[in-house]
Write a structure and sequence with these properties.
Length: 484
């Protein structure tokens, strides 16, 4: 791998240099060939060599492994030191298109930041992260990606003995809101500035021209987050642990823990077993994102203005704009679900009406919208998603009238909807099934088939209806776990 490790050239307090702990007998479960090609990696063909590389047993030339320091607000409470407790950044590579990526191992052993943890990961969460991060990516949503999964041949102890695994993930970077908080909470303004300059150089070089690049940076991160959350909302994704340490500065989905896609629509949906008060419920994600951006703003105040109250005013003005910015992205994402690009007040009203009907009927979020794209030829399949057929029929009439008013042909509406309403999401019961067979029987076919179907989620794939069906009551998953 042609490494160029810019983060490792930052001051030492940004990380710990560390060699991943070796695992007993690594066995490659999956290599993402398509991603490896995209990154321009030239990898050996032998399974054992790949397993050695993606378990951390063999370090590639040019790799300078580090564990990154960060802090974070977890469920609203500040923790001054978190950091990579079970992850190691192997280094950065630049692909043919000139884009820089982090290559990181997760589950690669203890670091200075491990606190009470063992630095390891069970196989289950590794499979979960691989499936869901690839699903999110293929839905067209910015995300870290899965490059490889390796079984470690070791046992990890959680509530019981579980097979261990190492996950290799790729992200535009792993810099978090919590990375800023790490230095800001230590009143180390010099490091905050070094970090901000690094982020601008690496992710947003165009901001260097701005009159104040730091306020421009906050505005840009807010915009990236608003856009990201709007996209999550469009596909019914619930991150589950939107702590500031899991919030990426470059607007990608990172740190897949007890995340899940919602089956039936309900804005209050929560899956995470640790989210007792619904802080990170589906419908609360926009508010939480703004909260996280306010935490970032707090860290950057000294960069905004020498006068503290002026700096605060500047920060507040930017954060106050977040909800409107989010709304803009949200309506642009959501209106496409009903066939409209460039929405107005009337579109919002029609959109909210269908959401209310879905909430009432506990209709399947994905299948209801997908059936709407078919309602042009077959209204029945749409209407039967609802408990009150009369109001669904009424809605269809109003919707069609609205399309007409906008001068949108049914064919155009169909085109728009088809690309906004996936047929396939990583349904919890299927993810759990894939994990179960991989863990118990070393049978990876369930995971592989699911990954395959989710690689083209907007295609009909009519022979794959099992993957599109909402779960039967007996299959329904109510809780998901980080299991880390
Ligand atoms: P997460 O909730 O997965 O984003 O992790 C929060 C923090 O806990 C991070 O600092 C992780 O590095 C740390 N952590 C999670 N699991 C482990 C583990 N098994 N060993 C050490 N640290 C861990
Ligand atoms: Mg995390």
């Amino acid at each position: 791998m042609p490494f160029d490790n810019s983060y490792a050239r930052l001051p030492e307090k940004f990380f710990q240099k560390i060699i991943p702990e070796k695992v007993k007998s690594p066995e490659l479960i999956k290599l993402n060939h398509e991603l490896a090609d995209e990154l321009g990696l030239k990898l050996p063909e032998k399974q054992e060599e790949l397993a050695a590389i993606f378990s951390g047993n063999k370090l590639l030339e040019g790799s300078e492994p580090i564990a990154q320091a960060y802090a974070g607000h977890q469920f609203g409470h500040f923790v001054p030191q978190l950091g990579d407790g079970r992850a190691v950044l192997l280094g950065e590579i630049i692909n043919k298109a000139g884009k820089r990526y982090d290559i990181q191992l997760k589950g690669s052993g203890r670091t200075r930041f491990s606190r009470g943890g063992d630095g390891r990961s069970p196989l289950g969460p590794v499979i979960r992260e691989y499936i869901i991060s690839e699903a999110i990516t293929n839905l067209g949503i910015p995300s870290s990606r899965g490059l490889a999964m390796v079984r470690s041949g070791e046992t990890v102890f959680r509530e019981k003995e579980l097979p261990g695994a190492v996950f290799t993930r790729v992200a535009s970077s792993h810099i978090r809101v919590g990375t800023f908080e790490f230095f800001a909470s230590r009143r180390d303004n010099e490091s905050v500035k070094i970090l901000a300059d690094y982020v601008i150089n690496r992710h947003y070089p165009q901001l260097k021209e701005a009159s104040n690049p730091y306020t421009a940076l906050l505005e840009k991160v807010c915009e990236m987050q608003a856009n990201l959350i709007a996209k999550w909302m469009r596909v019914g994704f619930i991150h589950g642990v939107m702590n500031t340490d899991n919030t990426s500065i470059c607007g990608e989905t990172i740190d897949f823990g007890p995340c899940a896609f919602m089956d039936s629509y309900d804005p209050a949906t929560v899956f995470s077993s640790i989210d007792h008060h619904g802080r990170y419920a589906y419908g609360r994600q926009p508010k939480i994102s703004q909260w996280n951006m306010a935490a970032l703003a707090g860290c950057m105040l000294p960069l905004f203005h020498d006068n503290e109250s002026k700096a605060r005013e500047i920060g507040e003005t930017i954060i106050d704009k977040f909800q409107n910015m989010f709304k803009k992205y949200y309506f642009s994402e959501m209106s496409r679900k009903i066939g409209i690009q460039g929405a107005d007040e009337k579109t919002f009203e029609i959109l909210n009406r269908i959401l209310e009907m879905m909430d009432k009927a506990k209709a399947d979020f994905t299948n209801t919208f997908r059936s709407l794209s078919r309602a042009i030829n077959n209204e029945e399949i749409f209407i039967k998603q609802f408990s009150e057929p009369d109001s669904a029929e009424k809605w269809l009439i109003d919707w069609k009238m609205m399309l007409e008013e906008h001068g949108i042909s049914e064919a155009d509406a169909y085109e728009t909807m088809h690309k906004a309403n996936p047929a396939f999401i990583a349904r919890n019961h299927l993810v759990e099934e894939a994990i179960k067979y991989a863990t118990q029987d070393r049978d990876y076919s369930y995971a592989n088939q699911l990954i395959e179907v989710l690689s083209t989620p907007y295609d009909d794939q009519s022979d794959k209806s099992r993957y599109a069906d909402s779960p039967k009551p007996s299959e329904r998953v109510y809780q998901t776990f980080c299991g880390t």
